[in-house]
Amino acid sequence: ESYPDITVTAEYTGSGAGLESLVGGKTDIGNASRALKDGEKESGAVENIVAIDGIAVITHTSNTVSDLTSQQLTDIYTGKITNWVDLGGADEAIVVLGREAGSGTRDGFESIVDVKDSCKYAQELTATGAVISAVEANPLAIGYASLSAVGDTVAMVTVEGVECSEDTVKDGSYKIQRPFVFVTNKSAALSEQAQAFVDFATSKDAADLIRTAGAVPVNE
Asked: In this predicted structure, what is the pLDDT of residue 142?
């Protein structure tokens, strides 16, 4: 509304694909739902943090396990804990769900929980909505999803006694969180229109829009 002469076209892929499109010159901005890696920065990618998002740990609404420690999460996702009874729940096998390789959500979760490249997934899904739907349909499932996408169809587990919310993400007490990043290319100057888009998204003017979308603005 503020820039009626500018049209923004978005293609929705994983963070890895977004960065590939940026480096390949196919897009002006590559979105990533994780921090940039050192190698990516060295190749010319520039990190513009727009917001912070909590990665919620989700279970079926019937699941009686309501809190997990970081170590228990690590043990669940590496296959050391395989039954809900070991966590105070039903004597049933845990069905471990997650995102596909290249997903920023997966990268963020695995890095923070320290399970990088060692997860024992029963199923890898290609979208946040698919993870939520799969957990909603399976009483034995556990998964992770962006806080901004989680509704009341699944239960959010507290981690170390801390719930995943805007306040706990903002104050840092909820540890499973990651940045939402607009990535630009150091070697390619943005057009006037693309620069205006980045400037708006990282300004105080965008804070309420970001909050409405369920993430935590960094500039307000």
From this structure: 98
